[in-house]
Amino acid sequence: MQVRLSMTVPTDRPLLESASTPLAAEAEVILGRSLSDSILPIPLAPSASSMFGPRGVCLVAEAGPLWVADTGHHRLLGWRSRPTSDNQAADWVIGQPDFAQEGQNGKGAIGAATVSVPTGICATERGLIVADAWNHRVLIWHTRPEAHNVPADVVLGQTDFWHGEPNRGDSETAGDRLHWCYGVFYYQGKLFVADTGNRRVLVWNQLPQENGQPADLVLGQPNFTSRNENGGGSPTAASLRWAHGITVWNGNLVVADAGNNRMMIWQGIPTDNNTPCVAVLGQENFQDAELNRGVYAPTAASLNMPYGVTATEDWLLVADTANSRLLGWKYRADLRSLHGTPADALVGQFNFHSKGENRSYGMPLRDSVCWSYDIQACGNTVAIADSGNNRVLLWRLK
């Protein structure tokens, strides 16, 4: 399917004045914070329609269901079908006794249906996977939940559902341990986990069926026991500092290396430990790591802590989180020719040199973002976890 994005082509003119925009001008549905909310801080009480800093979103199919990691409320929210109206209430909650409660692990003991700072979320053919970041584990449901507080079937990173220490309480790591895992992605039977605190990405070649099952492959480190930032040295084509979002773009693995302010692109799916990538976006070379390439204002070729990434056939879409914008790169069969190139499209700012939250630090709008952490394309829809605005956007693609 050929998709055209709701983005502007590169221009220094304000976004709203551009006549060449090939996209829908604004989000179709907004979940969470209402546009009528005051700009002044207000209590974010949990409910079936409110969110607090959501950092993960998963639209399973274009018609739904939709799952959101409502990170600040320490819960997962589920909609039976794709929401069609603003502020539509969720149907299910996991991690809290009811929609009105909040707190890490439901203010109780850790278990198979509790979460603490849930972040990444993705779907399998039939199930659901969640990066339960501050419990230092990944939860797997073999069948997607369709009720409140359905317990997970499998846990990774821990030996059982009742423990939640980083690296299982040890200063060392291994292939069966996790430390601040923030991203998950499932592709053709493989599970990818951004094991952020261990500065690596772990890969399971088949969906794990047993608790604590070790990974088959590691990226970002020379082996399963190493966990140094950038492998203990300067950035390289193989190293990671702060892995987060993961996607596959026309069969090629892409990882958001937020700590090095770049996107890493591999040729195909790596099969060997510590395989180097073939191109990066956001930096001129494999050795540089400064935000916005070392200057205050961004450009079309720079990134500032990019946390989210997704792909369609034609486009790689990046949540350039600290610049409060979304960027798009058009696909090239020669991936190496993408190395360091400027983005082809922009959403959320007037031009490529702007970076204020909600464009010039204003009120949230239907076409603005503030510290968006996750982005996911599904059919003709892009779902965005607009964390700083305490909301999720469903944006229609042409």
Short description:
By secondary structure, the protein is an all-beta fold. It has one helix at about 360; strands spanning about 30, 55-60, 65-70, 75-80, 90-95, 120-125, 130, 135-140, 155, 180-185, 190-195, 200-205, 215-220, 245-250, 250-255, 260-265, 280, 310, 315-320, 325-330, 345, 370-380, 380-385, 390-395.
Q: Can you tell me the overall shape?
A: globular
What is the architecture at the second tier of CATH?
Answer: 6 Propeller
Structural class: mainly beta
Query: Rg, please?
Result: 19 Å
Q: What is the count of helical runs?
A: 1
Beta-strand share of residues: 25-35%
Q: Can you describe this structure?
A:
The chain is mainly beta. The protein has a single domain (15-396), classed as TolB, C-terminal domain (Neuraminidase), CATH 2.120.10. The protein is 1% helix and 30% strand. A four-stranded antiparallel sheet has the order 1-24-23-22, with no helix packed on it. β7 (128-132) and β8 form a beta hairpin. The longest helix is centred in the C-terminal third of the chain and has 4 residues, at 358-361. The relative contact order is 0.16. Residues 1-23 have low confidence and may be disordered.
Task: Set out the fold topology.
Elements: E1 29-32, E2 56-59, E3 66-70, E4 75-79, E5 92-94, E6 118-123, E7 128-132, E8 137-141, E9 154-156, E10 181-187, E11 190-195, E12 200-204, E13 217-219, E14 243-249, E15 252-257, E16 262-265, E17 279-281, E18 308-311, E19 315-320, E20 325-330, E21 345-347, H1 358-361, E22 372-378, E23 381-386, E24 391-396
Antiparallel strand pairs: 1-24, 2-3, 3-4, 4-5, 6-7, 7-8, 8-9, 10-11, 11-12, 12-13, 14-15, 15-16, 16-17, 18-19, 19-20, 20-21, 22-23, 23-24
